[in-house]
Every structure is written in structure tokens, then in C-alpha cells.
Amino acid sequence: MKKRVDKSAKEKVDKVDSGIEEDPPKTADEYQCSGNLELDLQELCKLMGMREIPAVKIRQTLLEKEPPSDGGVMEESQTQTISESQKSRWSPKPCLQVEVEDEDHHSTKEVKISGWMVDERMLQVLNKTLPSVNSLQCLHMWRTSLTDYTFSLLCNTISMCSNLRKVILDGNSLPEQTYHLMIGEGSMLTHLSLRNNCIGEEGARLIGSALSTVHSANKNLLSLNLAFNSIGDSGAMYIAQGLRFNRSLRCLSLSYNHIGDKGAAHLAEVLCPFALTHVEIVERRKLLMKGEQSTLVQPSQVSLTDSTSLSVHSSSSLDRTINNKSVKKKDNVKKEEKPTPGQAAKKEEPKLAKKDSKVARGQTGKSSSKDKNLIVSESETEEVTEMVIPLLNSEIHHTGGKVIYPGNSCLVSLNLSGNALTEQSLKLFLSSLTSQGDGGLQRLSLRRNRFSPECDAFLKIQELLSPKGSSNKNSSDQVEDVEQVQAQTTGAA
User: Fold this and answer.
1) Which of 33, 162, 207, 271 could join 432 in a cystine, given CB atoms 3.0 to 4.6 angstroms apart?
2) Tens digit of pLDDT for each residue in 316-352?
3) What's the pTM value of the predicted model, to 2 decimals?
């Protein structure tokens, strides 16, 4: 008996000496993720005390093969691909469909969660696992019964994923419609889909404000899909306000949103140069006055008032210089309090050297790096101020007592299919497209609206857009066909 006790004690000592962990983590907070989504998910679900642990189905990304020469065979292969994708979207039990780039499970590229409720505990697990997957680029959550609280947790998770750029949240209706939290000024998302989420006027207002205001604008979002919601004319007006100063969005889908001529008029207006409102003119004057005052003080103070991200950078650099100066002063005081025997005769030499160092330190040493940092922060302040504050656009001009702002020529694709537009809206869009010339909108989808396809305005729009949109016509048609299929399934439901 004594030998067994000695043996067990010896084994414990050997484990401690070898550095091996004796006890596994007892709570989810103590668990350290490895980047392997399948392994981390199972371990965290166990630590969270979850009875039903979602399965993880891994699918490797296949290289696209060249289409066959026979058209009939190509159509059959496309049908098989669609049926397989539809089967993979639905799961009767909790399941995560993971797409990896190679056999290494650490290279997770896309995560799909479809058709089952993602509760608070599951989101806490995702909040810990997904940020550890550095290769994650796309998150697809379809009908996962998100609430306003779980959606806020999801926003926090997405903000911590360094390479996540595409998020699909179709079929997740939120009572407070806080979808705008996904596309704030600091958001890194480039593609966002919010289809079939019952987004109304209030949700559209919040999304429009997230796209741009007189003080800020989203700079990263490239495509936004708001199809199959209830935005209406009032919501379309708010979206159009968001497009006034936004210069990053390329593709916007507002199909099947009960939009009529009133809402379409606001959308057509922002495509061509428009006059600033009285409120916008007043804000512009305030910003110009601040800019003039800042040139008399310090460029870094402009970032303190105009840009949150730059304020941290500039203030930190100023704090470092101030702290360094205070430390140097303290050191000098200490040296003066306790002079050494050989220092009394050399008191004047450090003073002269200190004066000369103001010029020499800018050439070599630590102070040169600080000066470089200050110069970089000043240049960054000027560049980002022009990007973040839309009202300081240099292309603004005055005509007839009005301040004219350049129209939105960055939007290249606008989908308004399945709404209530008449020929009146077509005339407005025709006028805007004519003013844009060769640039601007390249694709304008107007199918299934309340006008005849043979009317003059529609035919002229087709003539204007046909040379510009021929390059991306196929991709736009595919997106539109998917939305039409979705409309049929929604109507059947």
C-alpha cells in the first residue's frame, strides 16, 4: 500500500516537472481555443453543460471545372449543383456546415448555420471559437431565431473576427430592428445580406444613418441586400439619405419592398448632383470654421473633434511626448539635488548641449522617431478627415445661390424589381443616368413593376445601360433569378 502511494506521488511530481497540465479547464472561460473549430466547439459545449452538441459537417472547397461544351449537359450539371446546395442548407438537427480550403481543419473558410435556434449559450460558444479561426471569411446564419440580445452578442463576435468580411443573416426578424449595428463606421464587413427580415421604416432609417450622415460614412461595405422586406416609400427615402454621402457601396438590392414613385424619386435624386439642405450647409460652415481654427493651433486637435479613431492615435502620441518630458524634468531635478564632485564645474556644458540637441535630435536618436510619428499622424488626420467628413468634399460648388454636392456615382448596381414603380419613376431615373454620363450606375433592374416594358423611358434606360453593364450582366442576372425564386417560395409559404 505504501509503495502505491509513493508511486502516485512520484507521478504527480514528474507531471509538474515535465510541464504537463494536470487538470483540464473547468470552465469555458479557462478554455484556450486551438483554431480547430470542430474540436473547440465540442469542448466548449461540454464545459457549458449543453445536452445537445451541434454536429460539424466539413466540406472541402472544390476547384471549379470548365463547363462542358454540350449545353444540355451543362444545364443538368447546374441543376445537380443547385439541388445539392439546397440539401446542404437545411438541417433537421443542430449542425454547423463548415467549408475548409484543404484537409487542414484549421483553414475554415465559411460557416453555415441553417434552420435551428441559436440561443445565448450557443452564441457564447461561437463568441469564443469563431475569432480564433483566422481564415474565416464568411458567416451564413439562416433562420436561426436571433433576438435583439443574441444579435448584439453576434455583433461583438463578428467585430473580433479579423478576416470575416461577408455575413448573411436572412430570415432573422428582430423586434428592435438593430441591423445597423453591423455596418457602423468602424465595421470591416464588405458584404451583408438582410433578406426577409421584416425590416420596416425604422430599420431602414437606422441603416441609412449607418451608411452615412453629415459627420461620418461607412467606408468598407460594398454590397447590401435588403430584398423581401417592408421598407416602403418612407424607408426608401432614408436609404437614399444614406446614399447622399456614402461613397463605398457598389451594389444595393431593394427588390420586393413595396416601394412606389415617392421612394424611387429620392433614390433617383442622389444619383445626380443635388443641393445641400439648410441643415447640411450650416454643418458644413461649422466644420470649415473648425478647420480654420485648427490650423492656428495643432493639426492633431482636429482628430480629437472630428475622428474617434484618430483621436486615440494623436492623443497617445502627445501623451508619450508629455510623459517623456516630465520624466526628463524629474531626472534633471534629481541630478541637480545630488551633484557629484566632478559635476559642479560642468553645469554649463549640459545646458549648451541641451540647446544644441534640439536641432541634432531631429536627425538621429529616439526623438527623430517621435517626430516621424507626429508627422504621420498629421498627414493621416488630413486624409481621413476628408474621407470621414463628407461635407468637406472638395468637389462642392455653388450655383444659383445653392451649394451643389456631387451625385453618387459609386453605386453601380441597383435592384428595384418587384415594387410599385410607374413610368413616372422611369423618367426620373432616365434624367439621372443621363447626367452621370459614362460612369455611375451600370445595372438598374426594374422588372415586375407597374409600367409597360414597351414604354419609351424604359427603352431609353436600356439603351443607356446596355454598353455600361454588359460586363457584369451575367452576375447580376444570377442574383436577380435567385431573388425571384425566393419570392416564389415566400409567397407559397
Assistant:
1) 271
2) 343 444 444 444 444 544 444 444 444 444 444 444 4
3) 0.71
Please tell me whether residues 291 and 393 are part of one structural domain: yes
Query: For residue 68, is it within any domain?
Result: no
Q: Which residue pairs, CB below 8 angstroms and at least 24 apart, start in 456-459?
A: 457/423, 457/426, 457/427, 457/429, 457/430, 458/423, 458/426
Positive or negative torsion for Cα 239, 242, 243, 244: positive
> Which DSSP state fits 35?
S
Nearest to 55 by CA among 43, 41, 67, 65: 41
Q: Which of 214, 245, 210, 241 is nearest to 224 (CA)?
A: 210
Cβ atoms of 447 and 480 within 8 Å: the answer is: yes
Examine the domain organization and report whether 45 and 128 are in the same domain: yes
Residue 9 lies in a domain: no
403 φ/ψ sector (left φ>0, alpha ψ -120 to 50, else beta): beta
- Where on the phi/psi map is residue 225: left (φ > 0), alpha (ψ -120 to 50), or beta? beta
Residue 371 lies in a domain: no
Give SS3 for 271.
coil
**Domain coverage including residue 188:** 181-272+407-493
Secondary structure class of 268 (helix, strand, coil): helix
| CA geometry: angle 165, 308, 295, nearest 5 deg | 130
Pick from 463, 465, 409, 425: nearest CA to 442 = 465
How many structural domains are present in the chain? 3
Strand stretches in 52-146, DSSP E: 55-60, 95-100, 108-114, 138-142
* CATH number where 192 lies: 3.80.10.10
Residue partners of 142: CB distance under 8 A and separation at least 6? 89, 112, 113, 114, 115, 168, 169, 170, 171, 172
Distance, CA of 138 to CA of 239 (rounded, Å):
25
